[in-house]
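notes to self, project folder thing:

trying the whole complex as one job this time. last attempt i did each chain seperately and stitching them together was a nightmare. two parts in total, labels are on each line so i dont mix them up again. if this works i'll redo the older ones the same way
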Amino acid sequence: MRKLLVAVLTVFLALLSGVAVGCVLGATYNLPIPFGMYASGAAAALVASFAIVAFVLKTEPANTARSPLRHSAEVLEVNLSASFVGAAAWVSVGCLLLTITAGLRGTQNILANPAMTLFWIIFALGMAYATALLGDIYSLINPWLKLCDWIEHFDGSAFRGWIRYPESLAYYPALGFYMAFIWIELFGEIQPRTLSAVLLTYTGINLIAAWLFGKEKWFRYGEFFSVFFRLIGKMAPLEYVRTPAPSSGYRVRARKPFMGLLETHADHFSLVLFVIFMLSSTAFDGVHFTQPWVGLFWKHIYPILSAVVDRPYFFFLDIYYVWQWSMLILSPFVYLAVYLFLIWLAKTAANSDIPLRTLALRFAFTLVPIAFVYNLTHYYGELISQGIQIVRMMSDPFSLGWNLLGTNGSFRDPIILDAGTVWHTQVALILSGHIVSVYLAHVEALKVFPDRRYAALSQAPMLALMVLLTTAGLWILSLPIDAGQMVAPAPA
Amino acid sequence: MNAKLLLPAILAALALGLVYALTKPAPPVVSPQTTAVMLPPVPSPAAIENLQPVSPPAQVNVLYAQPNVFDIVVKGGRRLSSEEAVQQVHQGEEVTLRITSDKADELHLHGYNLSMPVWPERTAVITFKADRTGRFTYELHKSGLELGALEVYPR
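result (full assembly):
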């Protein structure tokens, strides 16, 4: 009876995925993907999922020597010296200072000021994608950590911590900063000068928190970018291991791609929420400016509100923005509810005594590939079209008429990819992330549930979860985009 | 593939296909005739205070028959229009934007990097070939007012 219930609920949820409820610099040129691509992509995800399940079930368990699921890491003979890493970190600090200064002194045109492109495109996007390939390089060149190290040259005990980092606080500060980051990106209408102020404030927060709790704890749990890039770095085939004193450099460790997501698990529920927010925030970013979403407020909620509350139009415009912000904050909890429900289904199907919370922690990292490709499909076009502009901007970072690099006239026209190329790339990326996540989830299931028969049963809800997330991602990409301004009707 | 997995896979794919068929959205309507219908009614001079369009109404009516001609009227910091602010065309088609504003500004079409000064009491016209595919917003640059978007679809 239990198996039948799980099967019915799983198929129901997989069906629901078909009806699943679809940038700062504003330089994205992507068109909605055609319905045919969305439908075929989702169908391909479903077929691929079953093929992976079949493969994993027929394969030797990961704990046998011959299993292709066995992942191993070998240490490469590449050493990164402390001086090389230190120099790279100082370059990172220099970029931070340049961003802050250019934001304060340069033009306030967001498309012309290098501060905006440096931070939102080169750092937030470029660093994320480089991390997925090269590993957690941010941990080597974190500018705020480097500033702490520099201050410690003058006072060795400056960042040893005055109070113990509360265990219950865990990754919640990083999650809070993540939400603030996304809010600023989507709704802050941030200008270069404001960005500089935000970065200065963030610098102050990091220094104070590192002084209070100790830099080790703060940059492990509290600093948003450290947590974010560390998660993405787990997908990469490279890892950096600190070598002990006196060399204090780093040794490069190679591993199979994505295996980093199986080597460790989330150690606190706040990290599960963080991963979920990676998914939900990008999904929200993709959906919040689409016609169905905007229409949800103006066609369904606004008529009710305006009938009840007699206020001018601009009052409801404020309500509209508050509604958007609220949906952003609530979005991870909607995704979390679905995630926990399907984890519970998997637990039930596997007849497992493992607590639900433990299973939620074990499977959280398997969602990272889907979250990453959500981000990549939405923003890689911006990295290409706007990111290349940094070559021109760096010739005159403070808008003083300089031509330092001789590139003032370069890339005046944005590089815009053909829409057909973008569509196919987006669908391929979403499918790739789906396949990886399904594979990881099934390998993890075989590790968590010792009985292969029950492990197989537990994979149905996990498969439904992945299909749901993938279909939702494709659906969002297919939604028509709103015009962006509230058009006043022509006078009669 | 294991037969026990194949049957649910086929059933789920069929079920999804049924759901897609039922929820399939209408394709974007892009045709010269439809584009002509999408043109906003030209406001009468009485509807726009202190504004005298350069083209007399008869000339404007003739332009209704031409495809991909979009009229944009801006007054009081807002776009006045009776239809969607998103225009859809196919790659390679000629597009004409005609803008009338009550304040001096500069129309900027992103992606194509086209700019055109806009003066009160004059209708500014810009015609170009939509050779790049994608979604391109256009705005009044000085006031930062986003007016709409042009979506160019591949053929």
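what i see at first glance: The longest helix of chain A spans residues 313-349.
need to look closer tmrw
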